[in-house]
Amino acid sequence: MKRFFGPTSFTALLAGVVFGIGLTLSGMTQPAKVIGFLDLFGNWDPSLAFVMGGAVIVHALTRPLVLRRTQPIAAASFRLPNLTAIDGRLVAGASLFGLGWGLVGICPGPGIVGLGSGDSYFLVFFPAMLVGMLIHGRLAARPSPSAEPGA
């Protein structure tokens, strides 16, 4: 049985808390601010571009340093993505994510952090997100049409 309280769980909890604080301080848990950022032809709020740009810069600078290690601090090995193809599933998933983000101004990270506020906006978003994840899990478990014999 996997231990619940261990270095990996503590590291994940700590990273989640830091991430949640960052999302809150940057305003990414405010749907109106996010929608203002996405409204390029209206009352555009560019402040979130600095938040995302800062995250990209930190990642670009620290990733090579982290990958110099033989293994992560709290895990047996690195788990890096190995899929590089831009296919229909990726485009469809990214489009659905972007559409949802644009319509309601929330994505999963800020949606989870926002639950702590008790705001009904987040209390409605979170179960809807879980339903979407369940639907995705069921669809992803089906074999792809190209894998079927005779295709």
Written overview of the protein:
There is one protein chain. The chain is an all-alpha fold and 151 residues long. It has one domain. It has six helices and no strands. The mean pLDDT is 85.
The gist of it:
The protein has 151 residues and is an all-alpha fold. The protein has one domain (7-141).
Helix content: 55-70%
Count all strands and give the number: 0
One letter per element, helices H and strands E, the order comes to HHHHHH
Structural class: mainly alpha
What is the first-to-last residue Cα distance? Answer: 42 Å
Query: Main sheet, how many strands, which sense, barrel?
Result: none
**Per the principal axes of the C-alpha atoms, what is the gross shape?**
globular
Oligomer: single chain
The number of helical segments is 6
Percentage beta strand: under 5%
Notable characteristics:
151 residues, mainly alpha
Topology of this protein?
Blueprint: H1 7-26, H2 31-38, H3 47-67, H4 88-104, H5 108-115, H6 120-141
Helix pairs in contact: 1-5, 2-4, 5-6
